[in-house]
Amino acid sequence: MKRDTDMKLLKSGKFWNIVVIIIIASIVMWLSLKDDTAEKLAALASANIWWVLVAVGVILFWWISEAWILQLIAKSEGHKYRFVDALPAAIIGQFYSAATPSASGGQFFQVYFMDRQGFKITTSVLILTVNFIIYVGSLLVMSVIAAIASFSYFDSFMPALPLWLAIGFAANAVVYLLILNAASSKKFHRTLIAFVARILKLFRRDQQKIYHTTMKLEKNITEFRASLNTIKQNKKAYFEFFLVNCLRLVGFHTLPFFVMLALGVPIVNVPLTLMYCMCGSILIGLITSFIPIPGASGGAEAFFGLFFMNLFPVDLLGPGLILWRSIQLYFPLIVGGIITVWYTAYIKKKPLITEEE
Fold first, then answer.
1. Which of 65, 104, 47 is nearest to 243 (CA)?
2. What count of other Cβ atoms lies within 10 Å of the Cβ of residue 155?
3. What's the pLDDT tens digit per position in 103-151?
4. Which parts pass through the membrane (predicted)?
5. DSSP-assigned beta bridge partners for residue 294
6. Which of 32, 122, 178, 255 would disulfide-bridge 318, Cβ 3.0–4.6 Å?
7. Alpha-carbon gap, residue 106 to 94, rounded angstroms
8. φ and ψ at 101, to 5 degrees?
């Protein structure tokens, strides 16, 4: 009952986050279309539907590969996780990441739904922590490669590029190190248990219940640490997860290139343009990943304009931004929202997995 109450509170917050996204999207759309509106709308209306579908396929690839990674991590820890169960968890996680500031809600809601599927909290937190650590590590490595490969090109016309890259790398590196330390630090875990115990004493007088709650938390953290150490010893598995994440990032960040093809943007050098599209998109993801607005709305659009101003003709940059953002953010929000509503109702009626305590 308490979990359902918590979900209602969180969903009310999510509603206002989506309102923020809609408002910012409306402003961006107006700014993109306010000049030469008829010509830009005509460009969007005449977009090649087949290339648009390929671009949508990039999002499907992102979801499917996320589910596959969750499966692989679960398997490495000795847990069976069916693909048909991992896929909705991946889509729902991406939905809540897009609908919450700094993508902060994705993992929390994935834990909630994996709990509904039957996983212990310890297991789901372990799987998602490992997934997040490897993902951020992969993003940092791919961002370094992207920056090296494209810095001279983007720096020739983009203002303050070194500063933006420094902020992006610093923010992601700090988060990566904090999560890595928090996941493996005994001192942090002891501090967490002591903090929870103090909070419980403020609201409960039953010392026995406080003791049992803190002991249960300590047991779960001990299990988490043991499982994490087991995975850390399997360096081959970690490397495989890392490679899969790198391939995911490469595939996902081809999206601007397919948007160019859909709008009929003239391309002289296909390999070079594809590389710049991927590098620009990866660096946008790096810089905007911790903007404290749902979906990094506003920031992502601004940096798209800065990175792609020389790749898109002036008259197609606005339509390109709208099409890119529609596929990259609004499509996952709509489809993810529908799947979240459906799967929530479905899983309440039919538990999928039973994991022994």
1. 65
2. 14
3. 656 677 787 788 778 887 778 878 888 888 888 889 999 999 999 999 9
4. 15-33, 49-73, 125-149, 161-180, 241-267, 273-291, 303-323, 329-347
5. 101
6. 32
7. 6
8. -60, 135
Residue whose tokens read 């999002």? 59
Residue 74: both structure tokens together: 């679960």
Residues in the chain: 357
Write the CA distances from 72 to 59, 76, 79, 215, integer angstroms.
20, 6, 9, 31
CB 143 within 8 A of CB 286: yes
Cα 148 to Cα 154, 158, 178, 269, 354, distances in angstroms:
11, 15, 26, 20, 47
Place of tokens 């005994």: 186
Q: What's the first-to-final CA gap in the chain, in angstroms?
A: 20
The string of pLDDT tens digits covering residues 81-110 is: 889 889 998 998 888 877 666 565 667 778
Burial 84-116 (b: 16+ CB within 10 A, else e): ebbbbbbbbbbbbbbbbbbbebbbbbbbbbbbb
Q: Two tokens at 262? A: 């859909």
